[in-house]
Amino acid sequence: MSADRLESIAARLEAAVSRLESCKGGAAGGAAPAEGEPAAFVEAFDEIVSNKVARFLALSKEIGGDVATQAAMVEAAYKAVRAVLVTASKCKQPAANVMQALLKPISEQIGAAQQFREKSRGSTFFNHLSAVSESIPALGWVSITPKPGPYVKEMSDAGQFYTNRVLKEYKEKDQKHVDWVKAYLGAMVDLVAYIKQHHTTGVTWNRQGGEAKADAVAAAPAPAALPPAPKLTAATTSDGGDEKARAGLFAALNQGGGVTSGLKKVSKDQMTHKNPELRGSSVVKAKETTASSTPKATTAAVKKPPVFALQGNKWCVEFQDNNREIVIEETSPRQVIYIYKCTNSTIQVKGKVNNITLDSCKKTAVVFGDVIAGLDIINCQSVQAQVTGSSPLVNIDKTDGAHVYLSKASIESEIVTAKCSEINISVPKAEEGEYTECALPEQFKNKWNGKCFVTEPTEIAA
Fold first, then answer.
1. How far is CA 386 from CA 20, 180, 233, 288, in A?
2. pLDDT of 28 strictly over 70
3. pLDDT tens for residues 202-236?
4. Residue-wise burial string across 204-221, b where 16 or more C-beta atoms lie within 10 A, e elsewhere
5. What kind and span of H or E run contains 42?
6. What pTM was estimated for this model as a whole?
7. Which among 198, 226, 248 is the end of a domain?
8. Sheet strands (E) in 233-313
9. What CATH number should be reported for the domain holding residue 72?
10. Is the bond into 146 cis (omega within 30 degrees of 0)?
């Protein structure tokens, strides 16, 4: 091989090594990126925002109304995430209190979007608002370790119930709303892939960078008239661990021998090895407590007034407690019934309606005749539903304890469950008034057949 050929190969190898070192510095915490140039992982995040997120925002503006208002909060949240990533590309990982301040703008926008949905329950676009509200916590992935990718996927799936309802409502009416769903979910899919490539175990900080400051991220203004949002912790994990509590524990352990200085001294009359009569019961009588040591009574939760009203085409039955005499009589096929946070109550629906939803109810029952779209049970505990007419679909999601009684006209109803337990379906026998109770399986097994996975209930759960 000639000397010129060797020199050419060496030059190409040096150039390749330089490029690799540059990428490592931008993505894995080496040297800070050149002044004015964003790190590689910041540019990759910008690609997501300029693609699916931009499409989602544009469609939200076209739809308008409450959808556009909430989309502005989503946009602000993405900007706040980018600001944290820019800081991470230039700085070392900060202390917990500084990290808390960096995360605050993201937390505010997530809380704002969720609060807006709660304040807009009568909105025509309630399903759109709910889809975003349920899944937008995914943008808090910058505080998640060690697996932010699966966390984003889980949050995206949490909103899928409502995105499916949007698709079902608009797929034959307006393609714009279908594209809105695809753009929003597509951005989540791209975000998972982005995290897997650049931040597999958490946000990548620049080990050679400077010190991050609490004011490094400019807080995006939260919408007016909204309560303060819940805060993200600096090291929130997917299992909900409390970093502050752990920090307090380690601080106490670091005292060394002084860790026992705060312990109460045990007198001789309380020592079981010196008092045989205490060994039999293994109980030491506590001394009388003073009034100052008595724990203060906790403040009772604010109880909201019950709601029973027709708002447009929606019957709203909310915050009912121990009310067994709720009857909805003046109905039409265009109306929907929305039952929210009711406890120990019974609702009877007469006539034919479009859809019935039980949301966040406990020990509540609904009896209804004909429903066009179906029955939805979401986030409930120990509820019952009886179909006296026909219902093509019974959708049960994130519910523990539900018993559905089907009529002969609804015996072929499609029943869909997700993240549920203790689901029982009673079907009518030939004898009038008699039912056969069937438990739906909670556990499944999956087997690869060479082309795909085949899923079937386990024998113990069948």
1. 65, 35, 44, 55
2. no
3. 888 888 888 887 665 543 333 333 344 444 444 44
4. bbbeebeebeeebbebbe
5. helix 40-48
6. 0.52
7. 198
8. 307-311
9. 1.25.40.330
10. yes
Residues 170 and 316 in one domain: no
Question: pLDDT tens-digit profile of 383-427?
Answer: 999 999 999 999 999 999 999 999 989 988 999 888 888 999 999
pLDDT tens digits, 242-276: 455 555 555 555 555 555 555 556 666 666 655 65
Q: Are 267 and 287 in contact (CB under 8 A)?
A: no
Find, among 276, 281, 143, 269, the residue nearest to 217 by Cα: 143
Sign of CA pseudo-dihedral 390, 395, 122, 179: negative
């079907």: which residue's tokens? 427
Q: Are residues 187 and 324 in the same domain?
A: no
Report the C-alpha gap between 52 and 44 in whole angstroms: 13
Residues in the chain, total: 462
Measured CA distances, 223 to 72, 109, 231, 272 (Å): 9, 8, 16, 62
* CA separation for the pair 151, 137 (Å, rounded): 9
**CATH assignment at residue 421:** 2.160.20.70
Place of tokens 């097994």: 445
Domain count, the chain: 2
Pairing state of beta strands 421-428 and 435-439? Answer: antiparallel
Rounded CA gap, 428 and 436, in Å? 6
